[in-house]
Amino acid sequence: MDGINKSMYDIASDSAFSILARTNELKSKGNEVINLCIGQPDFPTPKNIVEAACKALKDGHHGYTSSSGILGLREAVANDLFRRNNVIVEPGQILISPGAKAIIFYTLLMFGQPGAEVITPDPGFMAYKSLIDYTGAKAVFLPHRKEQNFSFNVDELLSLITSKTKLIILNSPGNPTGGVVPEKEFDKLANELSKYPNIYILSDEIYSKITFDNSKHKSLLAYPQIQEQVIMMDGWSKSYAMTGWRLGYGVYPKKLFPFAEKLAINCHSCVNTATQIAGIEALESKSSEVFVKHMVEKFQERKNFMVSELNKIKNVECCDPKGAFYVFPKINKKNFDSKLICSELLEKKFLATVPGSSFGDLGEGFLRISYASDLENLKKSIVLLKEYMNE
Ligand code: PLP
Fold first, then answer.
1. Of 76, 84, 86, which Cα lies nearest the Cα of 49?
2. Alpha-helix runs per DSSP H in 137-207
3. Is the CB of residue 100 below 6 angstroms from any atom belonging to ligand 1?
4. Distances from the Cα of 344 to the Cαs of 260, 327, 339, 352, 389, in angstroms?
5. 204: helix, coil or strand?
6. What's the CA-to-centroid distance between 206 and ligand 1, angstroms?
7. What are the backbone dihedrals phi and psi of residue 10, each rounded to the nearest 5 degrees, phi first?
8. Does ligand 1 lie within 6 Å of residue 238's CB atom?
9. How far apart are CA 131 and CA 134, in angstroms?
10. Would you give the DSSP letter of residue 300?
11. Among 2, 14, 150, 241, who pairs with 177 as Cys (CB 3.0-4.6 Å)?
12. pTM (whole model) above 0.85
């Protein structure tokens, strides 16, 4: 198209959202569709959080706030990080954003440019590659293999570093696999990356509160030797069932923060004020802590069910993920790629999943199944998948 910046063509779309659109279309025609394609908790936002937002609006909190976010919320984030990771960050390093996704974009706007290289997970969250491509930087893929429970090998990561590497993106617990990087691997990574002080790390920790089987999340911010290199992002979407509220944050090294703040001022001005006030309630109230615990227990139960049932299906192999709310089974069906399997499951069996290949080349052959749905639906999904695999 004449006049349009050609980088626009490098931005990809999220296949989960297009599959969701088709799912809704099929539903509107009267079909019962089991929707396991979308990455959002099936729980409602806890009442006390909703009430905090309503009260904030009634109390007249309707104006702009500081672009970095209200101080009370940034303090609540700093306290939460201290409680969970024993990490001290100053509120002045925290940028409140309209969803964590904005932090990915702002960070790539800081580091991505033609000639730069950005190391990113494969398979990985699709926005990483899409936005790296948009900036003109080169995406260099760090394999996360099934054989390593969808974690990575530090030596392999080090072998990908060149003089052009500006940023490394990591995501644990990970989307689309639910893989968690073992602490031992992070220890080694932190020691090695401290030898490259000019390379920054974007640590996407959006699933940090959703871990299983006693696998506790450790933030990359908890390593003093790389603290000046780490940009950590997290948010409320997944942990507090607040995907539609649009509330996330990034913690930046002090020297980078002014750049992040300028991007916020120019792009989103500030996050909806009532939402920010509700975000304080989420982090500080006992009842939301109880909610998170309950939700994670439910996810754990469903995860155990899915892993065990998927592994009983012929030609399906599934790892046992330690976090997030996805399973990423390998589906072996002769002459079928993951896109075709996903499309047939949706069109013939009314089961919505996402093809592994939409998360990177190494995702080929896999399906992403979100188990953020009730056990009844998950049981039906297993029956449908079994039927499909036997056809
Ligand atoms: N990072 C990962 C790995 C995700 O899976 C998602 C959402 O699906 C996000 C970031 C974005 O989260 P938010 O809703 O806070 O923008």
1. 76
2. 154-160, 183-193
3. yes
4. 43, 19, 9, 10, 11
5. strand
6. 6
7. -85, -10
8. no
9. 5
10. H
11. 150
12. yes
